[in-house]
């Protein structure tokens, strides 16, 4: 089946009435459509079909175009009205046009080829063949594209035979076979074969903004925003910078240095706090050991660990004692975290591995480890844990 695509002839048409010729699951096939199907790095059109939400448009190899609707209340032969989500479609046309201009200038001015492109909901990405692209180059490109925007170059289409298109020596290889090759020409800037939708002239791009870059498969992928989204992103970044300026009481020029110093000082405070927590754990355990009952010569400590303490610090405090049996439990949501430390001669008092399965079943817990430290979690409360530990003492 073949759906007549009106979007090439009338890319600015926002509504259209068509007849349903087929219904496949949650999709409608229409005799003609203004909805651009997903492909070539451009997403499918969305909008409404007779009031029902159109969530995507796709096509198959046979050029049948499928309109994906959220609710199937249609019948074959029925006439329906398409209303495009025009903001969505127009933004893609702007991004697509900007991408041609940017890829053309990357090639002619900087000798950088485009490997692949993607137009997302908010950003346009161009994967280049370069292993590195300096930021100054990206800003120069941004300026060059915006100059083309101001100069308002018309965008037009030409249909060529395969051989005449090949003879033009375009920067990008032609991906379609046979004749009827559709060329997109941004006058005086760029010509490539492309099946996407574009704005009628470069002024419609409005604004082209360099948004950053990332490394992918050893290449640099450049990220841009276009049009209304570019303005929104610039304003968002400025608002964040202003707010940070107030938070750090710093003008923009010194803001990064002030923030860097604050982050470094917070890291220092955090590390001092860790040391203090470790010292407290060590002192508390020391005082518990002094008061502890002994089995043989070995002090046995049962410790209900306060919630603000970290079990890691307790494990560290344990090794400061030559002979010690420590049973520690910290109440957490849904049970306890438990720790059994068997230092030195304590191994003659409690053999964890022998008692492991009875302990775990008594406390409905899991865990393990190797001498001198065993750890885990349990559903039982700390009292049950301590009494299960007592049962293991020989
Ligand atoms: Zn295109």
TrEMBL record:
UniProt-annotated location(s): Cytoplasm
Coiled-coil parts of chain: none
Gene Ontology MF, one: ligase activity
Major location category of this protein: cytoplasm
Domain Alanyl-transfer RNA synthetases family profile: start-end pairs: 1-226
Catalytic reaction list: tRNA(Ala) + L-alanine + ATP = L-alanyl-tRNA(Ala) + AMP + diphosphate
Protein name: Alanine--tRNA ligase
